[in-house]
Write a structure and sequence with these properties.
446 residues; 5-stranded mixed beta sheet
Length: 446
């Protein structure tokens, strides 16, 4: 290797400048290393929301709302003792959260107002709705000899076993439950006509499964789609001549809501006829999903769904997602902005084909709090800092922040900064998390 500078001799003045330049270069490199290490090992994240521009893409906090109207953007004016709730989804583990409210200069003093933080999944913070009943199409039997089908959410009793036999339902398909299990479904009209099938009856014709509804046959896109919700014995076997009696719908049925499917290198959440491509591996893991639950989809199966925008870590789990409280072993189904509990073990059995996301109801109700104080040199800015150490091992990627204001006020902006102070404990925690992420940071081969 040639050294083109071997004969170059620097004078004393240049040697000093050269030495100084080397020192400065090394210091700059060291500062860069420290800066990167600080960002990686002691991360911070600032999320904001401006009421003056509520629809701006620069808003990174979940839309503020009230407990009375969880799906409606709250107004900037909040009454005395009124609450303001919003969600924050920072990426990473943090030790502290500083919540800052910018108030209108004409607003009353809100110093001393309580700010409460909890951690779980955003959808698991939904209010608890009415208990969910057996899913449509389920065949049920009670010890007193009564037989039912769940049709359009209601229990429809077969008036006699003779009708069951004439319609062709296999008796082995009826799940034996207690009368108490039936109370979570409404009561529908009895089935008295052996020539008319009730809605939500299933048929197997050739290699295809169908759901009967409104005098039409709705085909499942594949046998796997049917099996994601039901067992084969729940379907009545028919021949091709059955098509002469009923029209086949152009609408195609897919997998159970909440199913995870993959195509090429993309993973999707399937829900209510829509497919949501998951943004990245970090989002997949932060939402509590498991690679072993991903189903490889063919083109026809995925084509049944209407593709949506990317699903990111700051969105709630879609309808149909099944949560399992790991301590109580109780299930919840996400539906229309509520988490509906499954109160019966028999009902839970009919949802057992779906893979639940693990959650913790007790943890989601545990909170830390702080009280707002005026920011120095500002008459209309209030802030407080809450320690998040107790949330270290909590399940979930969402912080629910709930503030009750002591006086009527008009909020102009919210600024939430999550940080991790430089301590040995935080260093060990960050290194442990990095090691865990390195193990998980891959896309499984299908």
């Amino acid at each position: 290797m040639f050294d083109l500078t071997s004969k170059i001799k620097l004078g004393p003045a240049l040697q000093k400048k050269y030495a100084l330049a080397r020192i400065l270069l090394h210091l700059a490199f060291l500062a860069g290393v420290i800066f990167v290490a600080d960002r990686v090992l002691f991360p911070s994240a600032t999320l904001v929301f401006s009421f003056g521009n509520a629809n701006s893409l620069k808003n990174t906090l979940g839309a503020p709302h009230t407990s009375e109207q969880p799906n409606v953007l709250a107004k900037s004016s909040v009454a005395a003792n009124g609450n303001l709730i919003f969600d924050a989804n920072p990426v990473g583990n943090f030790s502290d959260a500083t919540i800052t409210f910018g108030a209108d200069k004409t607003s009353q003093n809100i110093e001393g107002s309580a700010v409460r933080l909890r951690k779980s999944y955003q959808a698991f913070f939904y209010p608890t709705g009415a208990p969910i009943g057996f899913r449509d199409g389920t065949l049920l039997a009670t010890p007193d000899g009564s037989y039912y089908i769940v049709s359009d959410g209601a229990l429809r009793r077969f008036s006699s076993t003779d009708i069951i036999l004439k319609l062709g339902y296999p008796k082995s398909a009826f799940l034996t439950v207690s009368s108490d299990d039936l109370r979570y479904n409404s009561i529908g009209a009895d089935i008295t006509d052996a020539s008319v099938y009730p809605d939500d009856t299933f048929f197997a014709i050739g290699d295809t499964y169908y759901e009967f509804k409104g005098s039409q046959l709705f085909p499942f896109v594949s046998t796997r789609a049917f099996f994601s919700q039901f067992d084969a014995l729940q379907a009545i076997i028919k021949g091709d001549d059955f098509f002469s009696q009923y029209k086949v719908s152009d609408s195609i049925l897919g997998f159970a809501d909440g199913t995870l499917g993959s195509s090429d290198i993309s993973v999707f959440i399937l829900s209510q006829g829509k497919s949501y491509p998951i943004a990245d591996v970090a989002t997949f893991l932060s939402m509590g999903f498991n690679w072993n639950d991903v189903v490889a989809l063919d083109a026809d199966e995925l084509g049944t769904y209407q593709r949506q925008k990317q699903f990111t870590y700051d969105q709630p789990h879609p309808d149909g997602t099944l949560f399992l409280d790991q301590k109580t072993q109780k299930y919840f189904v996400i539906e229309n902005g509520a988490k509906r509990p499954i109160k019966s073990a028999a009902i839970a059995q009919t949802y057992s084909k779906q893979k639940p996301v693990l959650a913790d109801l007790e943890q989601s109700e545990t909170s830390v709090s702080c009280q707002l104080k005026k920011v120095l040199l500002s008459s209309s800015t209030y802030a407080c800092t809450a320690a998040l150490d107790s949330f270290g091992q909590f399940i979930g990627n969402d912080y629910r922040i709930d503030t009750t204001f002591s006086n009527e006020t008009k909020i102009s902006s919210i600024d939430t900064t999550f940080s991790t102070p430089l301590t040995w404990e935080n260093l060990r925690s960050s290194l442990s998390k990095i090691k865990e992420n390195l193990k998980n940071n891959y896309v499984p081969q299908q």
